[in-house]
Design goal:
Layout: H1 8-15, E1 19-21, E2 49-54, E3 65-67, E4 70-75, H2 77-83, E5 93-97, E6 114-116, H3 123-132, E7 133-141, E8 148-154, E9 159-166, E10 174-179, E11 183-188, E12 191-197, E13 202-207, H4 221-235, E14 247-251, H5 254-267, E15 272-273, E16 290-292, H6 297-315, E17 319-331, E18 336-339, E19 348-357, E20 365-368, E21 374-377, E22 383-387, E23 394-396, E24 406-416, E25 444-446, E26 463-465, H7 484-493, H8 501-504
Parallel strand pairs: 2-4, 7-13
Antiparallel strand pairs: 1-3, 2-5, 5-6, 7-10, 8-9, 8-11, 11-12, 14-22, 15-16, 16-17, 17-24, 18-23, 19-22, 19-24, 20-21, 20-23, 25-26
Helix pairs in contact: 4-7
């Protein structure tokens, strides 16, 4: 029997979508005229998945049925214009809005979650594959000695059927496809570890993840100084440039931000400790918790492709994806050491701020431009920073401040198509804006008149430069690297509680810049 021969009810049972058909009647509540009329929780996130359709065509299949896990609504006025901007009277359209989407982007959803009867002939098949099929990734931190077993609970007979084994550790993460409402059990032999139901795209770990690295009280100053000197040498290797400064700030398309934000929010309690053993000292894992939410494969492919379009437009060349990393959640006290990324694969990259909260001070991305001038970029959720990551030193040396503060980033990396690992040797590309080096005209002035040797987050954006090519993110410290020792100085001066003993003894008007 092919899928097309299934009745509507048979499709629901076979796909286990848990549909409750009420043929001939509209399933949802009142007509929604603004997305603000949908249900949001105390954090301003959608409380449920929503299937929406234009109110002007009640004959559309979306208007006739109820579905497990979904609120169903007709939309009109502002909501209609936002969700279906190309709507023409009589069009049969539908869209699935994801649970956990922030109010600011509610109504925006990925193209795959839009239905149009002109191109998608089978509504039920579209809804099944685009709105109720969920990717699930499971991690075993419960037992090193043996895999844990995953059982699917068959709903008609309420029987547990063995599905998968999951071996220990992040590298053995097991991903599979399921459907909204499916129920599972994780077991260690005959012992039930946990029962869970699929309510959204899910990343879930069982047991306690190991600490980021072996706990220690010792100082890592010597290792950090050595690492900074090494990074200084590495950043001088690359001569090819893609932009005038080596970085720029941008914004995610709202549908992509909606999808990223909902994934994080729905899985925010499923984070694990990021593993840092033998990975260096670039994140201060010995002082601050570094958490991680792994991204399921299918969602990663969608995000990577969309972000590649943005990076390619910024860099001025077609790019190919090389890696995506995250979601990394920095927490109170986190610092990120100045560094450059892997030369063969990380030509141009993106930092995406997916979420943040409880910060008492801004936590800027620090990027040193092509003349090693420091720029400090403040990011809000949905902001992106493009940067030439194998060439331009970048960091977050200032500590993340705030009780229970968190800052969630996604990192994605690319290199020019067809240039391979030697992309950095392909010089003199046409159309590349000249690098802003030391040929600037005039100077830079800060509205702040105090001691610029001390980092002052409230002064970000206070610098005005005569040469507009320098942009609007020059650090109020007016700091410029001259050598590796300056990287070490910056790392020390941005440390929490740092006291400049030399500056204490010198009148402010006689002090040099940092």
């Amino acid at each position: 029997m092919t899928m097309k021969t299934f009745s509507k009810r048979a499709l629901c049972v076979s796909a286990l979508v848990f549909c409750d058909f009420v043929v001939g009647t509209r399933a949802g509540g009142s007509v929604v005229k603004s997305v603000n009329d949908l249900d949001f929780d105390e954090n301003g996130k959608l409380t449920s998945h929503n299937l929406v359709y234009p109110s002007g065509n009640p004959a559309c299949p979306a208007a006739a049925h109820r579905y497990y896990g979904y609120e169903t609504h007709a939309v009109d006025d502002d909501a209609l214009n936002l969700i279906f901007p190309e709507y023409q009277k009589g069009d049969c359209l539908a869209a699935c809005l994801e649970r956990g989407t922030d109010r600011s982007v509610a109504g925006h959803t990925l193209p795959s979650k839009h239905y149009d009867a002109k191109t998608d002939k089978d509504f039920y098949l579209w809804f099944r594959n685009s709105c109720t099929k969920m990717e699930v990734c499971l991690i075993n931190y419960y037992s090193k000695e043996r895999p844990i077993s995953i059982f699917w609970i068959e709903p008609r007979k309420n029987e547990a059927k063995f599905s998968y084994e999951v071996k220990y550790g992040e590298r053995n993460t097991h991903c599979f496809k399921s459907y909204l409402g499916h129920k599972f059990e994780a077991r260690d032999g005959d012992k039930l570890i946990e029962a869970f139901t699929i309510e959204h795209v899910l990343i879930k770990a069982f047991g306690q993840s190991p600490p980021s690295a072996s706990s220690t009280k010792r100082s890592f100053d010597r290792e950090i100084e050595s690492a900074l000197k090494h990074e200084w040498d590495r950043h001088n290797v690359v001569k090819r440039t893609f932009s005038s400064l080596g970085f720029a700030k941008g914004r995610l398309p709202p549908d992509l931000f909606a999808n990223m934000g909902s994934f994080y929010y729905n899985n925010r309690h499923n984070k694990v400790n990021e593993e840092w053993n033998n990975k260096g000292y670039f994140v201060n894992w010995w002082e601050s918790t570094v958490s991680f939410i792994q991204i399921p494969w299918d969602i990663k492919v969608v995000w990577q492709a969309r972000l590649a379009e943005l990076v390619s437009a910024w860099a001025g060349v077609p790019v190919e994806q090389t890696s995506m990393y995250g979601l990394r959640q920095y927490e109170d006290g986190a610092r990120l050491l100045s560094h450059v990324d892997r030369l063969p694969t990380h030509a141009v990259s993106l930092i995406v701020n997916v979420a943040q909260g409880n910060l008492t001070d801004p936590w800027p991305v620090e990027v040193f431009d092509h003349a090693d001038r420091l720029h400090e970029v403040i990011m809000q959720p949905g902001d992106i920073v493009y940067y030439e990551s194998a060439k331009n030193l970048h960091s977050r040396n200032r500590a993340l401040m705030g009780k229970d503060a968190y800052f969630v980033n996604l990192f994605t990396h690319y290199r020019p198509v067809n240039d391979g690992e030697n992309w950095h040797k392909v010089l003199d590309q046409p159309g590349v804006p000249p690098a802003v080096t030391d040929d600037i005209v005039g100077g830079c002035q800060s509205s702040y008149t105090g001691d610029t040797s001390i980092p002052l987050p409230e002064q970000f954006g206070s610098v005005k430069c005569d040469d507009k090519r320098l942009g609007s993110y020059i650090s109020p410290t007016l700091f410029q690297l001259k050598g590796p020792e300056d990287l070490i100085t910056w790392w020390r001066k941005t440390a929490p509680g740092y006291v400049d003993e030399e500056a204490k003894e010198t009148p402010a008007e006689d002090r040099d810049e940092l």
